[in-house]
Amino acid sequence: MDPSHVALIDISWPNSAFEKYSCDSDIKFGVRIDEFSKIIKRAEKSESVEINISEDSMLRVSIGKNKKYKMRLIESSVSDTPLPKITYDSKIALSSARLDKILGDIEVVSDYLSIKTTSKNVEFSGKGDSGEAVINLEKDTEELEEISVTQESTGTYSLEYLNPIVKAVGGTAGSIICEFSSAKPLRIEFKVTNIGRIHFYLAPRVES
Asked: CATH second-level architecture of 90-202?
């Protein structure tokens, strides 16, 4: 969870997703995401990455044949965060590329994305000082792969949080599932082919 408690990410990666996986016992450790990301980005697509925990509380990362890094582990000051248990009223499925384009179209005029569902369509919109934008996807069309609504819902969410996760993960996910209810967090599920899944939760904007 981010420090402001606005966004939460839950990643599930089975051992079958790795070329080699070995773990003798359950282990919990923390790393600084910004530093870890810098190291992982040094890997080329053709290079393998090996990660292991040493006895001296260091994270060892080997990239390819000749790059080796050591990172000091940190103790997280945050206790285990329980995942939200929510029964959602609206569920939609669409391609990650389509959602990425929608977010870009809305960002032209607004910092926030509003989503509204009925049994027949989903409406994405945004409004700002420069104007407003509305994108409507109808049921039973190629653009909207699935829509299920038990109760019409409306929610507004920050593009500052949505854009980075969709751009970072969407390209590997193909289709994604969005679930939400009025005044409740948005949940986006990314299923990464043959690897695992990622759940991203984002709190709604609260009007003051």
From this structure: Box (3.70)
CA–CA dist 80, 66 (Å, integer): 36
The domain limits of the chain are: 90-202
**Residues 193 and 167 sit within 8 Å (Cβ to Cβ):** no
- What's the rounded Cα separation, in Å, for the pair 88 and 66? 49
pLDDT band with cut points at 50, 70 and 90 for residue 158: very high
For residue 132, what is the enclosing H or E element? Answer: strand 131-138
Contact between residue 143 and residue 80 where contact means Cβ atoms under 8 Å apart:
no
Question: If you average pLDDT over residues 125-136, what whole number do you get?
Answer: 96
Cβ within 8 Å of residue 201, ≥6 positions away: 7, 8, 9, 10, 83, 84, 185, 186, 187
Q: Which amino acid is at 140?
A: D
pLDDT digits (tens, 9 = 90+) for 97-128: 999 999 999 999 999 999 999 999 999 999 99
